[in-house]
């Protein structure tokens, strides 16, 4: 690990933390985490991005209050939003594994990012259903989509567009 990786990693974890703290409360909160995830992957690539995102998740699970609503600790993983945290990791691994397709063609980044966003939503939705089932609260699949996916789609797509736009401006300086 060199000095540049330490700096880019610290920047990524700080960015994700700040973007988690900017929250509009809801059953599943609105946050800027998706903006941070896609900017990190765009700027630093799939491998490093996935490592930085994993460090952020491990730091939060380890107890630092760096998740939405200043939450932290292992129990957050078994709360309503735990699936999205796993989804962030799954999305970044997906972006990493498809990097050859989008890295030299930034116009493809948006399309692949949409697929990875829906992967993240899948983790978030099924985890939400499963956690609630453990607590004997049942939601239909459509009700879960109404809480976990529909409110976020447009804003998350805008966040990805914005991340790719900012990423293009910043990339030459990295
Ligand atoms: O507890 C956490 O830190 C995770 C919160 C996850 C919020 C999800 S991410 C995708 C979707 N878009 C949002 O703005 N909020 C949800």
Automatic annotation (TrEMBL):
Ranges that cross the membrane: 12-44, 51-70, 76-97, 109-131, 137-158
Top-level taxon: Bacteria
Gene3D superfamilies per record: 1.10.1760.20
Pfam assignment, any one: BioY
Subcellular location(s) per record: Cell membrane
Primary localization class, coarse: membrane
Keywords of the record: Cell membrane, Membrane, Transmembrane, Transmembrane helix, Transport
Membrane topology label: Multi-pass membrane protein
Protein family: Belongs to the BioY family.
Record-given protein name: Biotin transporter
The species this protein was found in: Faecalicoccus acidiformans
